[in-house]
Amino acid sequence: MKSLHFITRFPSISLNLCFIFITLCPSLISSQTCEKLCGDQKLKYPFGSGQGCGDPRFQKFVTCDRAQKKLMLNTHTGTYTITSIDYTNLTIYIQDPSMSTCSSSQPSKGFGLDWDAPLTFLDSNVFALLDCSIASSPLYTSRTSLNGNGTNSTTAGSGNIVPLCDRESGPICSLLYSCPTISRLNLPISTCCIYTPLDLGPAYEIDLQKLECSSYASIYSFNGKDSNPQGWKYGIGLKYRFSVKNDFPSACSICEKSNGVCGYTGTYNAFICSCVGGVNSTSDCYASASMRNDGQKILPWHMRTWLASSLTLFLTGVLF
């Protein structure tokens, strides 16, 4: 009778309690997990679909644009579409929309990596700086010297080491001038080929304004067509690392084998294994909650038990 008296006397409180219970339950039941796809791009460690997914070091650099359904690389020079990921060779390939190719030549500001990004240029990447000013570009006006390892370089007036363009043995630049769009650039030929990304300096920066070049092309594969630039693969290849030792974490390997997605949580970014049904595990997903037949995610049993018990004790204390 006491509980009936309470409900009769305080109907608004009772309704509010029911409303809170109904409101909280669906939000818990429909809790999201880390996803395995971004559009049609497969996601595996160290990349993730959102906050708390993948490796926290990559979170601000590689993100999933849900509106465009594309995986994107973010640097201080812009945002670039990741076209593919080679998980075996730890390489991502990106496209710079302002970069020139054999079929398109356009002005560009260049490309650069953030200093703290866990990424480096692919060794096989070839960069061609296009339409550079022979009169004033540091690539041409600096004095030539011979450095310690026997290769040529130029020393700019500011004291910075700037790579000397390959003017003799490399056919890539001359082949690029067989492309109609590039052949329309200023003559005489003022294209500079750089074969080693390290030549860009410790900042891994292609600063075209500083180098006084109007654009650049980047080739990461000749695709078996060394003499035909129309068949080359244009884009930028970037290597990534898991850690200093570059070992794939064993905990993450176990998680992925159990149909989970590697992620992190908490102040210290502790490892978690994100499982189907919105369950986070510290090991694997073999014992996690499964999906209901209608596809709705359910709470793990211990969460359901805790929620029901807590609500029961709360109502018992209030009503009696």
UniProtKB/TrEMBL annotation:
InterPro entries: WAK_assoc_C (IPR032872), WAK_GUB (IPR025287)
Keywords assigned by UniProt, alphabetized: Glycoprotein, Signal
Gene Ontology cellular component terms for the protein in this record: membrane
Membrane topology, record value: Single-pass membrane protein
Localization per record: Membrane
Domain of life: Eukaryota
Single GO term (MF): polysaccharide binding
Pfam families documented for this protein: GUB_WAK_bind, WAK_assoc
Wall-associated receptor kinase galacturonan-binding domain residues: 34-96
Record-annotated Wall-associated receptor kinase C-terminal domain positions: 222-277
Signal peptide: 1-31
Protein name in UniProt: Wall-associated receptor kinase galacturonan-binding domain-containing protein
Organism: Papaver somniferum (Opium poppy)
Top-level taxonomy: Eukaryota, Viridiplantae, Streptophyta, Embryophyta, Tracheophyta
